[in-house]
Amino acid sequence: MEKYRQIYNDILERLRNGEFDHDNKLLPSDQQLVMKYKTSRETVRKAMKLLADEGYVQRLRGKGTIAIERRQFLFPVAEIKSYQELVDEAHLKSKTTVLSISQSAVPEWLGPVNGTLTVVRLREVENEPDVIDYDYILCDVVDEIPIHVAQNSLFAYFEQELGLTIDYAIKKVTVEQATIDDQRHLKISAHTPIVVVRSRTYLADSRILSYTESRHRADRFSSVEFARRVH
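Above: the chain's sequence. Below: its structure in C-alpha cell form.
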C-alpha cells in the first residue's frame, strides 16, 4: 500500500471514531504527521488533500485542519458557491425538491424592485431536510426559470446557458425563530432556531442578479472561516 494511502486510512478511521469531533479540534499538523509516519511532507499533503477532497476535513490556511461534521452542511459565508457545488465538493447525498416557481409578492427586505421570479426549494442532506432556499431573480435580468434548472443549479444556468458573469455577493447572517413554513418543511418544532443567510448577488456589470434567503436548521449548520488579527 502506498504511504499516503496508509496515512489517509489511519486518519479516516480516527475521524470515524469521533476523535476530532469536539469543539472544532484541530487534527495533527503536517509536521507532526511527517514525524509520526516518518515520511515526506509531500506524502502527508497528498493524504490530507484526499481527505479534504472527499469532504472529511477542511484545511484552514495558516491555522490547521479540522474535521467536518458529516451531518452538518458546511456553508462558506465568505465565498460564492451554489448549493450544488457545495454538496458535490463534500460528497454528500443530497436531494432538491422544487416547492414553487412563481412571480409572487416581493418581501419587504428586498426593497423596491420591478419584479422577480421566485424559486422556493427544499434541500435534503443525507436524507434529512436541511435548508429552504428562497431565490428572487430579477425579471429585468432573467425572464424564465425552467423546472429542470431549478432542480439543479441556478448558477450553472446563469453562467453557462445565459452567459452572465457573477461577480460578488453581500451576505447577512442572523438567527431567527422558525416560521410555520420552516416547521412544516424542515420537520422541526416551533422553538428550533433557524440560521438565515440573506444575500444580494451582483453581476460583473454591477447589476443585481438575485436576492436569496437561505433558511438552515441551526443544528445542522456549520460555517468555518479563517480570520487573522490585524496589528
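The beta strands are 57-60, 64-67, 73-74, 94-102, 116-125, 128-138, 166-177, 193-203, 208-217, 221-222.
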